[in-house]
Every structure is written in C-alpha cells, then in structure tokens.
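Q: What residues go here?
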C-alpha cells in the first residue's frame, strides 16, 4: 500500500470538514466512526517554561496529561499540559478543541502518544492508538484553508 494513501484520505476528510469550521483555528474530520481534530503547529503547541527543550518541536513518544484547563482568550479550546514519560523535564502545552477533549474522554493522568508524520504530529490514546488530534505543519495547514472562489 502506498504510504501517502492514508494521508491523502485523511486530508480529504479534513477538507470536507473545513467549511463548518472555517472561522475557527481547528477543524474536525471523521473517519470510520471516530474523529480527529486538526490544528496548526503554531497555534496548537507551546513549550512550557519548565521544558528542557526550548524549540517548538514535539518529540515522538508517550506523554502524560498533567493538567487540563481552559485556554484563556480562546473560547472552545482547552490547554493540555503534557509531560514526557521518558524525560520529566520535557513538557509542553497542547491546545485542543473542547469537543475533541470531551469526545476523546481525555483527562489528567492519562497517557497519550505523539507520533511524527510527514504532515506534522499525530496525538493518540496510548492504550487504543486512536488518534484524537492532528497537528499539521503550518504550510500543510494553510493548504487546507478554505478560500472564496470568484467567478
């Protein structure tokens, strides 16, 4: 199977869902009865001041949800504070739509897995490997934005 086929299918689903979320910074896509929200790297990931790494890259691996809080000034978005299980000094904030957190039943102390992909990072429940959030590189995310067509 071509490695791009799942990516193309996921992006097509994202494109289908974008009109409903055009005014927000995140959108939802549905695949096989489950859904994963989509956000951009620049608006979804923020390094913690406690982090040993100061860049905006997210290392692949398992993370524990340390805190779930409202994201001030971002209605409908929750801020997850994540800490790497391999290196407690590696932590960051992940901004996720409230609906994705509720639907995924995410809470403190849960383990999630970050997997690097060509398009960005996939976040999934560690136990089920069910993706709940895709963080796209900014260039990829901008390609998904809807644009008015003038005739």
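A:
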């Amino acid at each position: 199977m071509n490695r791009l086929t799942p990516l193309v299918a996921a992006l097509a689903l994202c494109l289908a869902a974008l009109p409903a979320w055009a005014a927000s910074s995140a959108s939802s896509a549905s695949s096989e009865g489950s859904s994963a929200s989509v956000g951009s790297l620049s608006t979804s990931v923020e390094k913690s001041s406690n982090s040993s790494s100061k860049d905006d890259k997210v290392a692949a691996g398992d993370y524990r949800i340390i805190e779930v809080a409202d994201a001030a000034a971002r209605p409908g978005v929750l801020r997850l504070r994540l800490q790497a299980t391999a290196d407690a000094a590696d932590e960051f904030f992940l901004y996720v739509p409230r609906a994705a957190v509720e639907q995924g039943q995410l809470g403190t102390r849960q383990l999630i897995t970050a997997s690097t992909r060509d398009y960005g990072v996939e976040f999934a429940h560690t136990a089920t490997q069910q993706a709940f959030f895709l963080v796209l590189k900014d260039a990829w995310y901008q390609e998904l934005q809807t644009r008015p067509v003038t005739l």
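A: Context that may help when evaluating the design: Residues 77 and 97 are 4 Å apart (CA to CA). The chain has a mean pLDDT of 76.
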